[in-house]
Design brief:
Mean pLDDT is 88; it is low at 1-27. The chain is of the alpha+beta class. Helix content is 33%, strand content 24%. It has ten helices and 17 strands. It is elongated. Helix 8 packs across helix 10 (305-321) and helix 9 (286-293) packs across helix 10. The strands form four sheets. Strands 3-4-5-6-7-8-9 form a seven-stranded mixed beta sheet. The protein has one domain (5-321): Metallo-beta-lactamase, Chain A.
């Protein structure tokens, strides 16, 4: 889920019948309450042979070569067929591979149109297990699974997949596109800034106990490969610094500093809970005490005291129990 998914998608869904008509007529929408043009879907080229496809606030990507196409998350049953048509506008090569970033249905339910044409589906092995234990008819089960690393090579391009342990979902992987050296991140961090408040401060989909280790390994990868640019898995969201209301930030890619910033975010909120407990504050009082002090209020984009209390309840539990 994106950081602003609930707030922004709600207003979009109210306009969906009009959105579909507008896209068919190639007339952009205006985001409710703004003057910003907004199409229900769009395809952008971000490097030689590398394209992103956005449907609503969800973004995925595909790589076009002379030997076929590598695509990632097929999103939803509504988005998948549109994505297939967008690929056809660029190349007549078949889609040979679909690679899942993780197992959440809202990112991987649109693949049947690609399976019908013979695509091979690839996912981290825990994702495959998730989809067996918690199936959804519209989700295509993977043909190939792997543990910590897998590489798809096709033509002059490749897609590397790295699993660093539980994070958002228990099987989420990060992807590196070569030779463009673009990092594709879904749900764990979204450019332009890694200090954005969670859309759901209960972070029920995340595994906080492993986040620092996860982002440390991801940061190491960024440094080892000299990665400078990240493709975000959602339309970028931010907050207006005056009104503190969600806004849309145009741009499909952003700086790899988002990885460092998200590592700093996780480290800071975990350390805050531990420090307050070490100072003798009763566990049930830790969230209120941190909010009263205004801790991190000047760092977190979209800071909200109510959300911070919820988030710090989770961090206090982590500090006490390890989970």
């Amino acid at each position: 889920m994106p950081l602003l998914y609930i707030a922004l998608t709600t207003v979009l869904m109210l306009s969906l019948p009009f959105a579909a008509q507008a896209e068919e007529a190639e007339v952009p929408l205006l985001m409710p309450g703004t003057k910003m043009p907004f199409k229900l879907w769009e395809t952008e080229q971000v490097a030689d042979g590398v394209y992103t496809f956005r449907y609503s606030f969800y973004r995925t990507m595909f790589i076009v070569t002379d030997d076929g196409v590598i695509a990632t998350d097929p999103l939803s049953p509504e988005a998948g067929p549109i994505m297939r048509e967008e690929i056809r506008k660029i190349t007549d090569q078949p889609v040979k591979f679909i690679a899942y970033t993780h197992s959440h249905w809202d990112h991987v339910s649109g693949g049947q149109v690609f399976k019908d044409e013979g695509a091979t589906f690839i996912a981290q092995e825990r994702c495959a297990a998730n989809l067996v234990e918690n199936p959804r008819p519209s989700v295509v089960t993977p043909d190939i699974t792997y543990d910590d690393y897998y590489k798809i090579e096709l033509g002059d391009q490749s897609l590397e997949m790295f699993y660093f342990g539980p994070s958002h979902d228990n099987c989420l992987v990060v992807m590196l596109v070569n030779p463009a050296n673009l990092l594709f991140l879904v749900d764990i961090a979204n450019p332009p800034n890694g200090w954005t408040m969670f859309y759901n401060p209960a972070i029920s989909e995340d595994r906080p106990w492993h986040m620092v280790r996860f982002f440390t390994q991801l940061q190491n990868l960024v440094e080892e490969r000299n990665v400078e640019t990240v493709i975000g898995g959602h339309m970028s969201g931010s907050f207006d610094p005056v009104t503190n209301r969600p806004t849309i930030v145009k741009g499909t890619t952003g700086p790899a500093t988002v990885v460092t910033e998200r590592l700093e975010f996780w480290t800071a909120i975990i350390d805050a809970a531990r420090a307050e407990l070490a100072a003798g504050t009763a566990p049930e009082e830790v969230p209120d005490r941190i909010v009263e002090k205004g801790l991190l209020a000047d760092k977190i984009i979209g800071y909200d005291p109510k959300k911070m209390r919820i988030l710090m309840r989770r961090m206090t539990s982590l500090a006490l129990t390890g989970e």
